Hints:
Radius of gyration: 17 Å
Low-confidence stretches: none
Order of helices and strands: HHH
Distance between the termini: 23 Å
Strand content: under 5%
Largest sheet: none
Shape: elongated
Helix content: over 70%
Number of helices: 3
Number of strands: 0
Amino acid sequence: MNATPDEVRRRVQEEHDAIRAQIGALLESTREVAEHVADAPRLWRPMIELCRMLQRHLDYEDEAFLPLLEQADAWGPVRVASIDDEHR
């Protein structure tokens, strides 16, 4: 991984935006199912895609973001430990 810190930060932010959008799609599908506009199987595609997106994102953060964060300042190791807890 030879990305610059700015590239890593940009990618993490873009992935957070994409995850939020996918959560929005899943919520919309959930509303449609709850209102009997759509059948429950409609939830599977956005749910599976959200799971895939989250796993790719967590893997990228572990590989690229956390090493940078750990060295950023004196609080880096504390922040990394907190994120590790969240990821678990």
